[in-house]
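Lecture 7 notes: from sequence to structure.
We start with the chain below.
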Amino acid sequence: MKNPTNSFLFFIIILFSSCFPSDVRFIDAQPEHLEELSFIPNQFQGIFVINNDTVVVTDCTIAGDSINSNTLVVKSWGNYMFVNSLENGVYNLGCAKAVNAWNNKNISLEYFKFFDELPLYESSSLDESAILETIDKMIADKNNPLIRIDSTDDFHFILDNVSLNHFQSLLNNAKSEEVIRIN
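Predicted structure tokens for the same chain:
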């Protein structure tokens, strides 16, 4: 007989991993190896439309919130800007990517999807017990940054001690959404 708790957890994993932009949260601001910025780079400043909301980004604020406060940490790496927002004791990471091709400047948001990265079987059907077993093994593996799953408010994979290689893998496999720049 299946454990009802595991069945519920499996259902929640599938539901929320398909509905929410990012299913990953972090114990520390990411990427861990980078220092906080004092100012937001010019290429990321302006007025943007994100999910039908207008967001103003200045040299020191995002949507009116000051950067590098206790709850908002901003870092940069090449053409990426990372915005870490502290919520319920863990960091929600927003990632913006700037691309300049043929004098056309585009910015996209990158969403980390940890569930999509699970090393599951290549079959087209999802095997509940295989997924739960894989998650349990990943949590037990000290070389893996996954430390727990939080389903308190939404559903999130909580990561800690994220190595540069793990972070780069998340970044390489992130889902993108184009951002509209108004000015």
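Points to note: Confidence is low (pLDDT under 50) at residues 1-20, 120-124. The CA atoms of residues 130 and 158 lie 20 Å apart.
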